[in-house]
Design brief:
The chain is mainly β and about 150 residues long. The chain has one helix and seven strands; from the N terminus they run αβββββββ.
């Protein structure tokens, strides 16, 4: 089977990196890959399992749910954590004050909405911002915490 595969020879010159010659099929594959990336910029099914956006981690513990979001460059007063029903929304927005001679102003906005599991206590949610990481602790109500059931034989 291996003898059916074409063999590519790469030119090696001293002092220079080896250059790769592209075939028309390589160029076609590259064009289709970029077309696919433009059509589906955040394809969530690349890896098997649950997909999470970069910079966001959700950890479920017995007594609470901990959400860590990377939001570097924001000040604590630019962050907003809101809960409505079973949805938690994290917002961060940075605007530079308008200056008369400024040609360009920096504006950054980030918003994520997560669905929280059942059995949480929304009145006791705490949020901490430290070193560019927003950490939100969502405690569970005591009756909603899992309990261990003994298996009998």
């Amino acid at each position: 089977m291996f003898n059916l595969m074409p063999r590519r020879r790469e030119r090696k010159t001293e002092g220079a990196l080896a250059r790769r010659e592209y075939t028309p099929f390589d160029l076609l594959r590259h064009e289709f890959a970029s077309l696919f990336d433009r059509a589906f910029p955040a394809w969530p099914f690349e890896a098997m399992g649950e997909w999470e956006p970069p910079g966001l981690a959700v950890e479920e513990r017995d007594e609470e749910v901990v959400i860590r979001a990377e939001v570097p460059g924001f000040e604590p007063n630019e962050l907003e954590v809101a809960v409505r029903g079973n949805e938690l929304t994290l917002r961060a927005e940075h605007r530079e004050p308008p200056e008369e001679k400024a040609v360009e102003r920096r504006h950054a906005r980030l918003e994520r909405t997560l669905t929280l599991p059942a059995g949480i206590d929304p009145d006791k949610i705490e949020a901490r911002y430290r070193n560019g990481v927003l950490e939100v602790h969502v405690p569970r109500v005591p009756g909603a915490q899992p309990r261990r059931i003994e298996v009998k034989t």
